[in-house]
Design goal:
It is built from four helices and no strands. The mean pLDDT is 85.
Length: 95
């Protein structure tokens, strides 16, 4: 039983630390303060809720390929797409 309590405590500490260090704009479903209160006041349930419903999801577009050449290509494509998005595709009107 001691091991279960220790495991629950470790999970709680890790989830609370994760919630504290997550950027404010990446939270799902609640604000940062709301998640901190839930994880702090409901240790086991709050930790599980944080993992399931609050923790930011990593999307495949956040990951770069392992090959350095492919990673560079993807990075340049993202930069070009962002530049085009900022310009609003006004360059197409001039063609």
């Amino acid at each position: 039983m001691l091991y279960v309590a220790l495991l629950a405590f470790v999970l709680w500490v890790l989830c609370f630390a994760d919630a504290v260090t997550t950027d404010d704009d990446q939270f799902r479903n609640l604000s940062k303060e709301g998640w901190l209160v839930i994880v702090l006041l409901l240790p086991l349930l709050g930790s599980v809720l944080w993992i399931v419903a609050g923790r930011p999801q990593k999307t495949p577009r956040d990951r770069l390929p392992a090959d350095p050449e492919e990673a560079e290509f993807v990075r340049r494509c993202r930069e070009r797409a962002e530049e085009q998005r900022r310009q609003g595709f006004h360059g197409r009107d001039q063609e």
